[in-house]
Amino acid sequence: RVYPPAQTLSLIYIGLQVTLSYFVAGLSKLFLPSWRSGFALKEFLLRSNAAQPRTLFQRLTGSPQVLLALSWGVILFECLFPLLWIWAPLRPMFIGLGLLFHLANFYAFGLNRF
Q: Would the pTM of this model clear 0.85, i.e. be above it?
């Protein structure tokens, strides 16, 4: 299918903005020791206003290994996001991970905080 140039450029622009947003967020987390250790994620999860996931977050934050794995998962997801522009086989996996990431954020923090 052939798209008009303006439509193609608009989609490329949106894609670049999304990529840059994830990448900058990942880099900022990468340089913060509190994110690399899992401490920042623990604090972030425990500040959730949602009552329903509170017990789940308390269980997750009780395990340093789980926090460390989740923190590094977020950091790697965000830092490696630009690879989607050059390695197409990664796209379905990243789309799935992104969907899970955003659904988890919505569940944890609700629409107003997310």
A: no
Distance from C-alpha of 20 to C-alpha of 82, rounded to nearest angstrom: 8
| CA Rg value for the chain | 16
Q: List per-residue pLDDT tens for the chain, 114 residues long.
A: 666 888 889 999 999 999 999 999 999 999 999 999 999 988 887 776 665 556 677 777 788 898 899 999 999 999 999 999 999 998 899 989 999 988 888 877 766 655
Q: How far is residue 84 from each of residues 5, 64, 65, 77, 81, measured CA to CA in Å?
A: 22, 30, 28, 11, 6
Which 3 state secondary structure label does DSSP give 83? helix
Distance CA 94, CA 24 (A): 17
Q: Are 74 and 105 in contact (CB under 8 A)?
A: no
